[in-house]
Amino acid sequence: MAPDPTRTLLLVDDDDTLRERLARALTKRGYTVITAGSVAAGISAARANPPRFAVCDLRLGDGNGLDVVEAVREANPDARIVMLTGYGNIATAVAAVKAGALDYLAKPADADDIVAALEASGGERPEPPERPMSADRVRWEHINRIYELCDRNVSETARRLNMHRRTLQRILAKHSPR
């Protein structure tokens, strides 16, 4: 399917590999994709060429993706926006929706899930995920999120999670569960 100039999509993610892979997949699905790797570049792109659709990562190297969502919403109030994150929780999902995002997807989300969220009509309820995260994976994501919020301080993270420091170190040393 050839890209449609009326279906402009701003894709903001600081992971170069993921951003380029998603850009190719979304271009194949008929979107004209503009990419950005930072909050500053995303805001600039949104203001220069207000997109009809946007897909934005929540945590970017230079700030919060919610700032990009607000800039897209200011540039085009009718834009359909989806947030992506590897650090999903209820508080950030609520903040994303309040900022103007339609949906909130956990990474790794594939292009079909993203397109389904972008194209869903307002009254439709999204289908449950085909492969939801396991309970072990949700726990691991939560622990890593707190660890990142504590600036990778193991002792502080262990204190906040009410967990022994050595136990936390063992969990952090393992690969993420599926």
TrEMBL record:
GO terms for molecular function: phosphorelay response regulator activity; transcription cis-regulatory region binding. CDD domains: REC_RegA-like (cd17563). InterPro entries: ActR_PrrA_rreg, CheY-like_superfamily, Sig_transdc_resp-reg_receiver, WalR-like. SUPFAM superfamilies: CheY-like (SSF52172). Signal peptide: none annotated. It comes from the Bacteria. The keyword Glycoprotein does not apply. One of its GO terms (biological process) is regulation of DNA-templated transcription. GO terms for cellular component: cytosol; protein-DNA complex. Keywords: DNA-binding, Phosphoprotein. The modification 4-aspartylphosphate is found at residue 57. Residues 8-122 form the Response regulatory domain. PROSITE patterns: RESPONSE_REGULATORY. The keyword Cytoplasm does not apply. This is DNA-binding response regulator. It comes from Oleomonas cavernae.
